[in-house]
Amino acid sequence: QVDVAAMVQLFGYVDVTDTGFIVAVLSIAFNPLFWNVVARWEHKTRALSQVFGSPHAACYCLGTAILLLNCVRSHCFTEAMKSQPKLEGWDCHWTYYSGLAISAVGTLFVISSFLALGFTGTFLGDYFGILMEEKVTSFPFSVLDNPMYWGSTAIYLGWSLMHASPAGLLLTAVVAISYTIAVLYEG
Question: Are 69 and 31 in contact (CB under 8 A)?
Answer without folding.
Answer: yes
